[in-house]
Design goal:
The complex is a heterodimer of chains A (247) and B (244). With 247 residues, chain A is mostly helical. Chain A has ten helices and no strands. Chain A has one domain. Chain B is an alpha/beta fold and 244 residues long. The mean pLDDT of chain B is 88. The chains are: A mainly alpha (247), B alpha/beta (244).
């Protein structure tokens, strides 16, 4: 059943121009960053040779690309997650899913995974971009892997949050703005929290992503991401069930 | 007696639903047998749609129980819903899908057997007069055809209970006649609940009629019973729902 929902979500996503435009834009922005970093690397390459233990192309080019990708996806997720439930509700199509022999959990997980399949494509494209560097040198695959895992997890958190906010309203635009607001809030925590308020940093999604970005697969960060994701998925299911109960 | 309970496809006991302090549906009992078409009548705001939403699991009743083919809807929603087909007041159509895509989705959601899916699709399109519309986007179809797609979605998995909320609204007289014919056809093998405001429609397709008023059931009578008494449905309706 979950597979049926995933397929439906993907079909809906790829029949609208939105998905294609976003894919193109994301790729354009990241390629631009990628080429910028490549240029910078070529410029400082002679100096790097004089250092005893110089950073490699992975650290100089790929890490910044992934850091940028996380921010771009933070902006893009609300645009895609907004329609998931708000639009179904506005078009009265949610009834079709609820009247069918499908559980709320299947609906929510299916929608979430559908979006994640889309983001997997985005991430795969970024990885391909990075792998193209193999033509000119060797890559640190460990760092690339930790970046990929980190980006995937942080995007999953964005999506779960976006899905929950989409379940709260019938207006897709409000869902998008709400999700963007909360995500930006979680990002800005970094700037707002002074060094003494260290506990606040634990709530910042991008702070946790930074560990992956530097090649550190931290179990605390993984746990935080998974907790975050599960919390919002459970909240979404509860919200839909609550609507049935209290109406 | 044993036969009668076996043929019972839907049974709702003491359904109540409150919205805050407002009582939308009050102690409604509904029973439906195989091969029966039930007309659910009532003025606007009588609680018909709320009742139908409860019967299809879209809304949980405040109290009361619902059984579909002997399966409790509240305990085992998925098993029970497998026997249900529902067309809400506003057809739940994905405008950006084609008719074929949409019906395929509906078939998959209702767990139609994979091998059988193509035959089921062809069959349902033929029954609803959608043979040559398969490749059309739903958003480009006229209201009448959209309504047919909605009905096709509700009967695609051959459910035992079909619930149609005002299926003929906005259709032209020819389309209405066709839809009524279709309802009669599916009413032979399944049970149908039909909510409507058109009394002649009830007289032409229904075996039994129930009238709701202010959340309560005020009449439960077979059409033959009405005819024997010599009373016209319109008079009964006016008497029972005249709010004083």
């Amino acid at each position: 059943m979950i597979v049926t929902i995933i397929r439906k979500e993907l079909r809906m996503l790829f029949t609208s121009p939105l998905a294609w435009i976003l894919l193109t834009l994301i790729q354009l922005v990241l390629t631009w960053v990628f080429l910028g970093q490549l240029d910078a690397f070529l410029e400082i390459q002679p100096q790097l040779l004089q250092i005893a233990n110089p950073p490699g192309i992975t650290e100089i080019i790929i890490s910044p690309v992934f850091a940028m990708a996380a921010i771009v996806l933070l902006m893009v997720t609300p645009l895609l997650s907004m329609r998931l439930l708000a639009e179904e509700r506005r078009n009265h199509t949610l009834t079709l899913l609820i009247s069918a022999p499908v559980s709320m959990t299947d609906i929510v997980i299916g929608k979430f995974l559908g979006l994640m399949v889309f983001f997997s494509v985005v991430i795969a494209l970024i990885v391909t971009l990075c792998i193209s560097l193999l033509m000119g040198g060797a890559l640190d695959f460990g760092l690339l892997l930790s970046n990929t895992i980190g980006l995937f997890l942080v995007t999953a958190c964005f999506s779960a949050l976006g899905l929950y906010i989409s379940s709260l309203t019938t207006q897709p635009a409000i869902a998008a703005i709400g999700a963007l607001g909360v995500l930006l809030g979680l990002w800005v925590i970094d700037l707002a929290a002074s060094e003494t308020d260290e506990w606040l940093h634990y709530f910042s999604l991008l702070k946790h992503f930074k560990h992956f970005n530097q090649g550190l697969i931290d179990t605390l960060s993984i746990a935080y991401f998974i907790l975050f994701m599960v919390t919002f998925l459970v909240l979404t299911i509860r919200r839909l069930d609550g609507e049935r109960l209290h109406g | 007696m044993a036969d009668e309970t076996a043929a019972l496809t839907l049974s709702a006991q003491n359904l109540c639903r409150n919205y805050g302090s407002h009582i939308a549906v009050n102690k409604v009992n509904l029973q439906l047998r195989r091969g029966e078409v039930l007309g659910l009548l009532g003025p606007n705001g009588a609680g018909k749609t709320t009742t139908m939403r409860m019967l299809t699991g879209n809304l949980a009743p405040s109290t009361g129980s619902i059984e579909i083919c002997g399966i409790d809807l509240l305990d085992k929603p998925q098993e029970a819903k497998a026997h249900l087909g529902f067309l809400p007041e506003i057809p739940p159509l994905y405008q950006e899908m084609t008719v074929d895509e949409y019906l395929l989705l509906a078939a998959r959601l209702h767990r139609v057997d994979k091998q059988a899916i193509q035959t089921v699709l062809d069959n349902v399109k033929q029954r609803c007069g959608l043979e040559d519309r398969g490749k059309y986007l739903i958003s480009t179809l006229s209201k009448g055809f959209q309504q047919r797609v909605g009905i096709a979605q509700a009967i695609i998995h051959n459910p035992d209970v079909i619930i149609l909320d005002e299926p003929t609204v906005g259709l032209d007289p020819n389309q209405m006649r066709e839809i009524r014919k279709l309802i009669r056809e599916v009413g032979i093998s399944s049970s149908v609940i039909l909510s409507t405001h058109i009394l002649s429609e009830v007289e032409s397709v229904c075996d039994r009629v129930q009238i709701m008023h202010k959340g309560s059931m005020v009449l439960d009578e077979t059409m033959t019973g009405l005819q024997q008494k010599g009373t016209r449905l319109e008079t009964v309706f006016a008497q029972l729902t005249h709010s004083g």
